Amino acid sequence: MTPLQQRIMRRVWYSYAISILARKEFLKGMMLVVGLHLLATLVYVRAVVENFLATELGSLPEHVFSVLSSIVAEGKILECLSVGLVLYAIWAFPFPRFRLLHMLRPV
Question: Where do the H-state alpha helices sit in 22-96?
Fold first, then answer.
């Protein structure tokens, strides 16, 4: 290959890599991975699971709300951001949410 062809091919590969990195799905997936990583490093996951299992089933939404409100009240910004990132990334993926809910409806 001549130097001109090598330069052209390098530019082609650069533009291909940029087109992959600029896709919405890739960026949302990276947000999900970063948010999950932040959440796993900032929160002791085993304690969270044990707390969920120790709570009664009927009071689980109240427990989740009280935990999230205490995180906000204590000013733990990184935990709030990681939870928000994870929730946004999960909600932003285009999967058939309503069709799944329709399939779960009793006949």
Answer: 24-42, 45-54, 60-74, 77-92
- pTM for the model: 0.52
For residues 29 and 89, the answer to whether their CB atoms sit within 8 Å is: yes
- All structural domains of the chain with their residue ranges: 23-104
| Digitized pLDDT (tens) for each residue of the chain, 107 residues in all | 899 999 999 999 999 999 888 888 888 888 888 878 877 777 777 887 888 888 888 888 888 888 888 888 888 878 778 888 887 877 777 665 555 555 555 55
b/e for 74-102, b at 16 or more Cβ within 10 A? eeeeebeebbebbeebeeeeeeeeeeeee
Q: Is 63 exposed, middle or buried (0-12, 13-18, 19+ CB in 10 A)?
A: middle
**How many angstroms separate the CA atoms of 40 and 19, rounded?**
30
Asked if residues 23 and 93 have their Cβ atoms less than 8 Å apart, the reply is: no
